[in-house]
From TrEMBL:
Biased composition (Low complexity): 69-80
Similarity comment: Belongs to the bacterial solute-binding protein 5 family.
Keyword flag Transport: yes
Organism this protein belongs to: Halosimplex carlsbadense 2-9-1
Name of the protein in question: Solute-binding protein family 5 domain-containing protein
Amino acid sequence: MVVNHEGNEADGESAGGFSRRQYAQVIAGLGAAGLAGCPSEGGSTATPAGSDDGTVEPIEFDGEGSGPADSGTDTETATATDREPVVDTIAYAHANSPDVFDWNPWTPQDNTAGDLWMSDLHGLRNVHTTNLTYSGTTIPTPHKPDHEEIEIMTWIEGTDVEPPYDWYDHHDDRSTYWNGDAHDAVAREKHNHVEFFQAGNKFTESATFNQRAEDQWTLHQWTDKGTVSEQEPDPTASNILETYAGPVDGDPPLHPSFTEPYLEQYRDAGSRDRATSVTDELKSDRVSLDRIALAGGTDEYLAGSGPYRLKSMDDVGSERMILRLDPEHPNAGHTNVEKLAIYWAEGDRAQTLKTEGVLDVNVGDVSPGAALNREVLPDYMQEFTRWLRATGGDMWKLNWNNSHLQNLWVRRALIEAVDWNAVSMNGWGEGGAQPLAHDTFLLDAQSEAIFSEEFLDSLHTYSRGSNTETATEYMNRAGYTRQGGQWVDPSGNPAEIDLFATSTIPEHVQAAQTIRANLANWGFGVNLSTQGWSTWSNNLDPNGGLNYESSLYWHGDPYVFQYYHDVGAWWDETLVAGSPTAPDPFEAEPEDTVDTQGKPIVQQIPDEPGAFEAPDEAGKAPDLDGATEINLVETVNAIRQPGNSEAERQQLYRTCAKYYNFYVPHFPFHQYMQGSFGNVRDFDWPGSSARAFDYEHSFGIENVLVLGGIAQASYDTEFEPPEEG
């Protein structure tokens, strides 16, 4: 049994898995630099240096940022715990409210934000290497007076893989729901089976539910094996199966008392109409806080695991909710923080709580020019650590269903006209992000790990600074003319597009404002709209028809095949989007003409990397010289097949990179310098290079710090003043 994934594949990809939309919910309330993406369950340019003990050191930062010194805990004595800590509560914020909170992940609007903080950690992902570890991981804790190291319990304790179809997740048998019922593989299977049916698969002849609880604590899963007549087998490469196993992220399963009745109704449904009725009922069944609280609610106990429990509805207020430490939880024994306060806040409200020093742990770096800088924070709010995030960046997401964005030369022109260095600086501040050096659709961490320097150097490089001369040339080739300072298309229509950004992420708003200003000054109209989280995410959801033209959006995955994939989910952006013809537009089909964003599935790809020539007024699928026609879905699917040699896999990766480099369907523009900051007056933290800061659950290290028991309330209020900058 594999108990961790701290090893690397020979091709530069590490084993492990990153999943689902939950990271999106995590960032919803943060408004801090650093976002990342990933699909459903199932070497950076500046590589951090290794430390003497084999751990990975974060990238050092200078006086332009801030960072606490070791909190003085090395002078503490064992008698420190004889005193009362100065605080008993640690605070965090989520973009939610008790009026709309809903643990049900199948409702039309996603209001589950906060559920990961009320659940056991699924596993731990190393933020530098992306490798995974599970229950039993030990972490040095020099900042704790009574624990030299701690052992963190996670829901998953290990995995096994049996190529080319099967994998097994082994769960820690100490995990329980808050009411004491087993939080086991059986509960997970039932939750996932409801997910399978609500996705419309009850009467889909080619669909099979490929999961089974082999015993109470082991979940067996597999890819399609062709067990029904309409189903094609889906043998999968072992390195990819390893990423399916042991996901560190995903839906925390609802209690079987919620899922079992729906599962039985789906099984009994004798028609599509009846199955649809069950789905409608499921989607309207709100799992509110009073249905998970241990007292003062409905006594249903429908969800909740992990060390901090909602013991009573008396602990739920309009401003915040208090969760209380379960002394019986395995992670409770090494923390002295008795309560977790979840503040209900997003956007400006969340920003205010941070600048007032109310929130004790936060995602983000403290950088000059960023929204959160040294000047706006109290002295005791300081950066813990910072690193180049291997899986985090941002893109300008484009919808080819827009008539202007269908034109190859227009997309190229818009990218050239924008000053991407300024976009990054204005949104994330000085030192908050690093512009990408390579245009492969990957972040630089993956590009430089997978491709040779010769191949990367041969690709076309789009300007990072505004190059309006080249942009104008490209617009002319698109057939556009400039009239009175305004670009117009060949039909005489003004050139303009909509640009969305969610107000939940101030950095995206500031970046979008820069894009709009650059393009407006050049004569291309941009209608900027800032939207709340639910409105914005619904507009990006293909199930609702993709009601956007362009948007600021996160970008990043641990593994190359997750970029070069076909996923139609709103919470992840891959090279190919989903199917516009399938009931569930999650994956495209080779038979599709276009994906949900209007991008053709069959395209001509230049044979030579870096080839750039295209016909004037080139549309979605131009005829090219020196090119080969490929089916994009077949190409990304081939990456996932077993038996590929290293050379064959490399050729598939290069095909995807050449497609992106030529067509620029979207434009990823930078990679994050990720940080974490918080209260160093009332809490003791290890030094910035400590291994305790190396792990995350979904997005950001903050819930591992709290739910893993790393956080330590201080026994005095002394702290080192912040560095200037």
